[in-house]
Design brief:
Strand order of the largest sheet: 3-4-7-6-9-10-11
InterPro entries: AB_hydrolase_fold, Esterase-like, Mycobacterial_A85_antigen
Helix content: 10-25%
Organism: Gimesia maris
Largest sheet: 7 strands, mixed
Protein name: Enterobactin esterase
Number of domains: 2
Pfam families: Esterase
Distance between the termini: 13 Å
Keywords: Membrane, Transmembrane, Transmembrane helix
CATH class of the largest domain: Alpha Beta
Strand content: 15-25%
Number of strands: 11
Order of helices and strands: EHEEEEEHEHHHEEHEHE
Radius of gyration: 23 Å
CATH topology of the largest domain: Rossmann fold
Length: 286
């Protein structure tokens, strides 16, 4: 799936250009009035790529809809991410609660152990996933038919980058976030009163091949890290423009083993190449 985006490009060395032009124009061209480059090349608005259309399967085709649910989890109740980690920067506020978004497709049969897709940063692009479920769980084409999996969108703990709760959750090279999802979020979904009222016997599969995770940017790094450290829990990973860079906090205990954070996936450490083969199915988009 590709969407249209508009990108405003700027000179790569903007400040250097301003400094040099300003300096030389004042010294060498003082008799002439300086005017901005109209931007024949490299400036302005551009549409990147052809005019891609969203495939019909990702649109609302009027098929039966499932049920949406939303509830909150107080960070203070968490044993894994209570919002009090010593690496957090006081200047980067932590949320008091995180929102959880759940979509149960119309084709789900109460009592069956459903596959799941966990998405990071809340309900981002969840509408497209829900449309795909509405349309493809009833597809007549067995090659395109989707199982009735349940989508769980998990809001991050707040802010971004080193010293933030989001950074702690998504950019840390450990199994912490995978454990948080498995041990705290999934049970909270299964025990939510509103969800239980609609689906008294709702259940999730224990088969890691039926448990997927998806994210963008640091959420993309989190998706890979969840499966990398806990392939016994999650084996299908979707990462969009993952931040496989050093955003792990400098004071995190994981620094001892992975000093460059998620950069170590492709650093001179050659983490992926030098590790035993893992039972993972990965889609990555850059």
């Amino acid at each position: 799936m590709l969407l249209n985006y508009r990108l405003r490009s700027q000179y790569l060395c903007y400040f250097l250009t301003v400094a040099v032009v300003g300096f030389t124009s004042s010294m060498l061209l003082s008799a002439e009035k300086y005017t901005e480059d109209p931007g024949k090349k490299g400036n302005g608005n551009f549409v990147i790529g052809p005019k891609y259309q969203i495939v019909p399967d990702l649109t609302d085709l009027g098929n039966p809809k499932g049920k949406h649910f939303e509830f909150e989890m107080p960070l203070a109740d968490s044993k894994i991410f209570p919002g009090t980690d010593k690496t957090l920067d006081p200047k980067k506020p932590v949320r008091k609660t995180r929102k959880i978004f759940v979509y149960v497709p119309a084709e789900y049969k109460d009592g069956t152990k459903a596959p799941i897709l966990v998405t990071h940063d809340g309900p981002s692009r969840m509408d497209l996933v829900c449309n795909a479920l509405d349309n493809l769980t009833i597809s007549k084409d067995p090659a395109r038919r989707l199982p009735a999996f349940i989508v769980i969108g998990v809001q991050n703990g707040g802010n971004d980058g080193k010293g933030s709760e989001r950074g702690l959750e998504y950019d840390t090279m450990s199994d912490r976030y995978a454990r948080f999802i498995n041990d705290e979020v999934l049970p909270a979904v299964l025990n939510n009163k509103e969800i239980k009222a609609a689906y008294p016997d709702i259940a999730f599969t224990d088969n890691p091949w039926g448990r997927a995770t998806m994210g963008c940017s640091s959420g993309g790094a989190a998706a890979l890290t969840m499966g990398w450290f806990r392939p016994d829990l999650f084996r299908r990973l979707i990462t969009y423009s993952g931040t496989f860079v050093d955003q792990q906090d400098d004071d995190a205990p994981e620094e001892a083993e992975f000093p460059l954070g998620a950069w170590e996936y492709h650093s001179s450490m050659m983490l992926i190449e030098n590790s035993d083969k893992k039972p993972l199915r990965i889609f990555t988009h850059v």
